[in-house]
Amino acid sequence: MPEVSGAGPAPYIYVCTRMRVRKAKLIPREEYQRLLNMGLPEIARFIEETEYKQEIDELGTAFTGTNLIEVAVSWNLAKEYQRILQITPGNLKHFTKAYLRRWDIQNVLTIIRGKIQGVKPGKIKEVLIPAGSLDRVFLDRLLGEDSPDRIMEALKDTRMYPVFVREFQPAVESGSFARLENELYKEFYADLIAEAKSGVKGGDLFLAFIKLDIDIKNIKTLFRLRADKFEEDGREIMVPGGSFSVDELQQLNSIPQHEEFIDTLMRRVKLKPLLDLLESLKKERTVRDIEIALTRVQLEQMERMSKRTPFSIHPILVYLEKKKYEVTNLRAIARGKESNLPTDRIAECLVM
Fold first, then answer.
1. Using one digit for the tens of pLDDT, what is the confidence trace for 176-219?
2. Could you tell me which residues come within 8 angstroms of residue 294 by beta carbon, excluding any fewer than 6 positions away?
3. Please, what's the b/e burial string for 9-44 (b: 16 or more CB within 10 A of its CB; e: otherwise)?
4. Among 66-75, 205-214, 231-240, 301-310, which stretch is predicted with the lowest mean pLDDT?
5. Each residue of 121-143: pLDDT tens digit?
6. Whether residue 69 has pLDDT greater than 50
7. pTM to 2 decimals?
């Protein structure tokens, strides 16, 4: 693929500076403690005083309580991602658009699962985040289809369609969409790696970011498989393209003793923050706690990458991820409060 044209360094400096300004407006760690001590009406009022004000005001007559918070922050996330695409130039836009296609997978699977479970289209629409290549109009069209088969037909011109042709019917027959989802993400990451290696300037930096993402995803999968006592061949579940081959990941999964598994994994890891975390994981912890801890390490490493290359794709992707987790945190707090979960348990679920 030929290099995607830009307009010199000035637009890159501008957009990366804008990302740092946006990142500074994200809810700081200390404010989450205040939120954890609030009730739902107070949380909604707090959010209304932040970057989510427009959505809270617009949706306040149609939703209340947890639903208002969840829908408002999700709509804000989608609009924010689209705004970023509008101001991002040249090669940076090329990589950003590719990265955001992950939302297409989430949205389509959400629609299909909702349809199969008999959820009303309006309720499904509330949780969609049209931040990828499939816009709100296209997703509304999918919502209007009367069966999963019709939805698959509507996907004919998308990148996902070949995977759906291969995996959709077995998923329907088995009642499980886990393999379909996994295959979609494997194809997504393969596409990203191809984009990074296509000759577009800055592809090496994009590739470093993607490989870190794949590594953390695969390590999370290892811990999940071991918690489930999964003793079969796990290579099909792993995402190729990271620092570990799928054969290496399977070898790690086959190690029966927990401490030996951690020690062997540590010998293959180079990032010190990840090494420190793995050392602490020699003591048994829940899979949920491990996944959150790994996500925190990933965000910290992404932040370091963006500081080393301040006028590249890295600051944009770091902001996209941190904004996503801010929305995830706000939704977790709202749902936790609604379910009367203890404050400390909600806090454990937050990524900060």
1. 999 999 999 999 999 999 999 999 999 999 999 999 999 999 99
2. 216, 219, 220, 274, 277
3. eebbeebbebbeebeeebbeeeebeebbeeebeebb
4. 231-240
5. 999 998 899 999 999 999 999 99
6. yes
7. 0.93
Is residue 9 a contact partner of residue 310, using CB atoms and an 8 Å limit?
no
Q: Which candidate, 81, 140, 144, 66, places its Cα nearest to that of 107?
A: 140
| Residues sharing a CB contact under 8 Å with residue 73, sequence separation 6 or more, in sequence order | 47, 52, 55, 326, 327, 330, 331
Domains of the chain (ranges plus CATH)? 203-311 (1.20.1690)
Q: Packing angle between helix 9-24 and helix 313-338, nearest 10 degrees?
A: 20
Calpha distance 306→315 (Å, rounded): 5
Query: Residue 283 is encoded by which pair of tokens?
Result: 């003591």
Q: Is residue 84 a contact partner of residue 323, using CB atoms and an 8 Å limit?
A: no
Q: Residue with structure tokens 């609030």? A: 38
Predicted confidence at residue 231, as pLDDT, reads: 72
Cα–Cα nearest to 295, from 330, 253, 328, 331? 328
Determine phi and psi for 261, rounding to 5 degrees. Answer: -60, -45
Distance CA 35, CA 336 (A): 11
DSSP sequence for 86-126: HH--HHHHHHHHHHHTHHHHHHHHHHHHHHHTT--HHHHHH
